[in-house]
């Protein structure tokens, strides 16, 4: 697939420069892969997140008042270093500590935990939550649930960001983060596999007309590949997997996030949203908040992921509806 | 290209239902292809726009306080009917008249002008502006400038919407609309041609690795097809064409809108934004407002269009920065 780029090794730095030009409220820490926004209110606990590149607008697009204080980005699909995360923690800390949102991938956990450990040694209180919303299974490993951190991570950014804005303490953010993260589930499908920028071959084989269910966001294949028949069939499979996870009852309330994984057209996304909403309605569920768009992409993959979050506290709705300056929400 | 859809003939109605579910502040007029929002302030002149489908989020995504009062959509690439536009005019009119923003295509002009004529016969004052920002040329017709209505139309939605919100009269909107529309220019490129939903063949031939400059938004080929070398080269051609149009001087001020034509990845778009901004900077221009995203797409086409608007009145910046409820701004 032909890509719009200059030299691959400068891809991320050029993209970040472009993103900053389009969003002048975001700032980059000099010489560091850290995007932050200037805060003035010292009573608000700063929240950070980060990870490999290739998932734009995550996480830099969620930096802004009401969401993240800073995002640390790595190279394509590779997390930032421990030192870079530590630098971000030091930078945003205003004396009351820092909260981190970490996606559940081995490499991400390692660097974040090391950085948190080092920050604590410097007497910066840091707490964190791990996002593990992926409910797809690994067919090569006894159908184990994968528990990777996917688009549900962005709901943590928004809910915890609003809670922090609302004056939540570091301990309260930890409690709330755990409460939310265990109520989120994500599952998606792809019609095409992503291409590394400039590469001709996709990251996994997927024939024209076929779909892969349960794909990851780094070019990981899903649990099943079948011929696509209709949007309704896609929605049916997704809702079924979510139902098995949540075992919901009629009238239960959920938040719905439909995430364009990269290059799904607006028209197709809207058709799919209609099918998903219809099926959830038929299940008797109550969906007081729906959000659609690009949140956590996988380069140029064509596909969609669906995230549900069980609404166990009505205040979460206020947090979702609260204003934020983050450009990608 | 495989598409996420059910039956093609219900594509748009299902997509609209999905869009309404994701954006509950938008309403659909029963039995009509008209999306509107409830306004309470009778002093604000309502603005309408519309056209064929396939350009989502245009125009329904720009309905909301501070932008359009209603959008009328047609079938794929086919404008709505005269009667439907007239119905929309009657619906939004609160006694002070209605303003329309019309893209410069023969079929669109015809139905809008007929509807405006009929509305005036019913004593509804209607004024309008034609958006004709496309500066690409028709190589089959003596290199005539095409003057089609492209993504620059969305700047008219925003600027005039904010002016109306600010109390502008129908006459003032007409004057301002003309002033703005003559200061807007758009030109773009595509890496792939769009596919009609479910179609295997694209709407024009474009080999892997090639780009077409000056494409339209209905599958019209551009004025030149060449092998893609880099994002910088794309930006250079685009800036050159814009320079020939505006014949700018150093320190002149412009608004920049970079429009994802459908399926460009976030990373590639950001790299291109960086290149465009760098070149405009080197020209000595001052760009106090940059907006990027999906505004006027062409189904699943991969490509980008660039719109510049010469800032001849600083109040336009206030209009651009004014709050709006429209979901796609």
Give an account of the 3D structure:
The structure is a homodimer of 329-residue chains. Chain A has 329 residues and is α/β, with parallel strands linked by helices. The first copy, chain A, is built from eight helices and 14 strands. In chain A, strands 1-2-4-3-5-6 form a six-stranded mixed β-sheet, with helices on both faces. The first copy, chain A, has a six-stranded mixed β-sheet with strand order 11-10-9-14-12-13, with helices on one face. Chain A is globular and about 55 Å long. The model of chain A has no long low-confidence stretch (mean pLDDT 97).
Describe the strand arrangement of the main beta sheet of chain A, using strand numbers: 1-2-4-3-5-6
Main β sheet profile of chain A:
6 strands, mixed
Mean pLDDT of chain A: 97
How many H/I helices of chain A? Answer: 8
| Helix content percent band of chain A | 25-40%
Structural class of chain A: alpha/beta
Q: Which range does the strand content of chain A fall in? A: 15-25%
Low-confidence stretches of chain A: none
Radius of gyration of chain A: 19 Å
User: How many individual β-strands of chain A?
Assistant: 14
Instruction: Determine the N-to-C terminus distance of chain A.
Output: 29 Å
Principal-axis shape of chain A equals globular
Quaternary class: homodimer
List SSEs of chain A in N-to-C order: HEEEEHEHEEEHHEEEHEHEEH
| Largest interface (CB < 8 Å) | A-B, 57 and 57 residues
């Amino acid at each position: 697939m032909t890509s719009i780029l200059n030299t691959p090794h400068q891809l991320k730095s050029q993209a970040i420069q472009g993103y900053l030009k389009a969003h002048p409220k975001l700032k980059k820490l000099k010489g560091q892969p850290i995007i932050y926004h200037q805060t003035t209110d010292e009573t608000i606990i700063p929240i950070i997140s980060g990870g490999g590149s290739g998932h734009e607008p995550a996480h830099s697009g969620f930096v802004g008042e009401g969401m993240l204080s800073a995002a640390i980005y790595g190279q394509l699909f590779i997390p930032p270093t421990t030192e870079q995360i530590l630098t971000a923690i030091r930078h945003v800390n205003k004396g009351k500590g820092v909260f981190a949102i970490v996606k559940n991938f081995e490499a991400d956990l390692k660097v974040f935990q090391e950085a948190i450990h080092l920050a604590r040694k410097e007497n910066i209180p840091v707490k964190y939550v791990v996002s593990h919303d992926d409910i797809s299974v690994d067919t090569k490993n006894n159908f184990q649930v994968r528990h990777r951190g996917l688009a549900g991570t962005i709901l943590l950014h928004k809910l915890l960001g609003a809670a922090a804005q609302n004056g939540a303490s570091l301990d309260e953010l930890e409690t709330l983060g755990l409460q939310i993260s265990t109520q989120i589930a994500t599952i998606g499908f792809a019609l095409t596999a992503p291409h590394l920028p400039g590469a001709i071959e996709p990251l996994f084989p997927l024939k024209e007309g076929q779909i892969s269910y349960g794909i990851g966001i780094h070019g990981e294949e899903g649990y099943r590949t079948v011929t696509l028949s209709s949007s309704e069939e896609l929605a049916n499979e997704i809702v079924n997997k979510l139902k098995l996870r949540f075992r919901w009852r009629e009238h239960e309330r959920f938040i719905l996030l439909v995430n364009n994984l990269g290059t799904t057209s607006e028209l197709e996304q809207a058709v799919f949203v209609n099918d998903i909403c219809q099926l959830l309605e038929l299940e008797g569920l109550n969906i007081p908040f729906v959000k659609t768009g690009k949140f956590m992409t996988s380069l140029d993959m064509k596909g969609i992921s669906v995230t549900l979050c069980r609404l166990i506290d009505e205040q979460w709705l206020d947090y979702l509806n609260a204003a934020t300056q983050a450009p990608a929400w």
